[in-house]
Amino acid sequence: MGQLCMAESFIDPDTYAESEHPGSAYVIEVVAAELLGRDDRAGSRDASAIDANVLGPIRDLAAEATILESFRRQVTAGFWDGPEGAARGRAAAHHLYLRNPGWWWQEYETLRGLFGEERFATRLRERLGFDCEAAIAISDAVPGLVRDRMMSRMESARDDREEFGPGNPAFDWAESVFDGKWKSDPTNAARIIPLVWAMNTLGEACLLSPTEAAAAAGVSKEVGTAYLERMSLSFGQREEDLFALAEAVRWHPYVKVNDDAYFLTIPGADLWALRPVFEGALKDGASYTKHRGRWLERRAAEILGPILEPDETHHSVRFHDAERQGEMDVLMRCGSTAVVVEAKSATLRPGARRGGEALISHLRENLTKAARQGAQAKEILLDSKPLTEPSGKEVKLAEKVTEVQTIVVTLDDLSAVAPVLWELEGTRTMPEGVTAPWVVNLNELMAVAATTRWPVQLIHFLRRRSRLNELGRFVASDELDWWMHYLKLGLYFEKETGEERIRYTSLTDPLDQWMLYEQGIRTEPAPKPEMKIPAGSTDFLDLLCSERPPGWVQAGCALLDADSDAQRELWKGMKKLRKLARKRKRVQRVALTFKEPAPLLFCGIAGLEPPGDALLESLKIQVAERFDELGPQRTLAIGSSVSSRRAYDALLVVDRPKQ
Question: From the CB of residue 235, how many other CB atoms can be counted at a distance below 10 Å?
Answer without folding.
Answer: 16
